[in-house]
Write a structure and sequence with these properties.
Blueprint lengths: L1 E12 L3 E2 L5 E9 L3 E9 L8 E8 L9 E2 L15 E6 L2 H11 L4 H6 L9 E10 L1 H6 L20 E9 L3
Parallel strand pairs: 4-6
Antiparallel strand pairs: 1-3, 1-5, 2-3, 3-4, 5-7, 8-9
Length: 173
């Protein structure tokens, strides 16, 4: 069943990735007062779902994703070329309100997010160590099986030799 969710503030986007059928997509995280955190996947790289945009989206539940935050666009496979028509940009969060919003949405620790059985959340970590690690997807992508997958010059997850990692403590600990 299709639903319209209004006043979604886009908080961020994942790294583009190429899915099995060759489409290049990004995972988008947002928040709205009526639903809390939401995830929209798949979405087009060229969508107007950009950080701090306020949008109204026509979405539906993905029967293959049990996370309560997860949504997808109607006909996201067969109507891929036209899924951006399900998005209406209605505004933008001004710079002066961004920190306050993030502070309001912040959880004390990942454990709190997990305890609520949420799959999205915001914490303010104390970073102990930040480093680059080998990207396993990059290594697997150089197998003959993946060579046929051409993409349009957009760097996707498997194109990066390394990925950023960090170890951290929750901000209030």
């Amino acid at each position: 069943m299709t639903e319209r969710i209004d006043n979604v503030i886009i908080l961020g986007r994942g790294v583009p990735e190429q899915i099995k059928d060759g489409r290049i997509t990004v995972c988008v995280a947002g928040w709205c007062e009526s639903r809390g955190f939401i995830r929209i996947y798949p979405s087009r790289v060229d969508s107007p779902l950009k950080s701090w945009n306020i949008v109204s989206v026509e979405v539906e539940r993905n029967p293959k994703d049990s996370r309560h935050e997860s949504w997808k666009f109607p006909d996201s496979r067969s109507g891929w070329e036209n899924i951006n028509q399900h998005i209406e940009v209605t505004g933008c969060v001004g710079r002066e309100h961004r920190i306050g919003l993030l502070d309001m949405l912040k959880s004390d620790c990942v454990a709190d997010i997990n305890e609520r059985r949420d799959s999205l959340g915001i914490i303010k970590p104390v970073i102990k160590r930040s480093y680059l690690a080998p990207n396993q997807m990059h290594m697997e992508a150089h197998q003959p099986l993946f060579e046929f997958m051409e993409h349009s010059g957009i760097k996707v997850k498997r194109d990066h030799m390394a990925e950023r990692r960090m170890s951290f403590l929750c901000g209030d600990n």
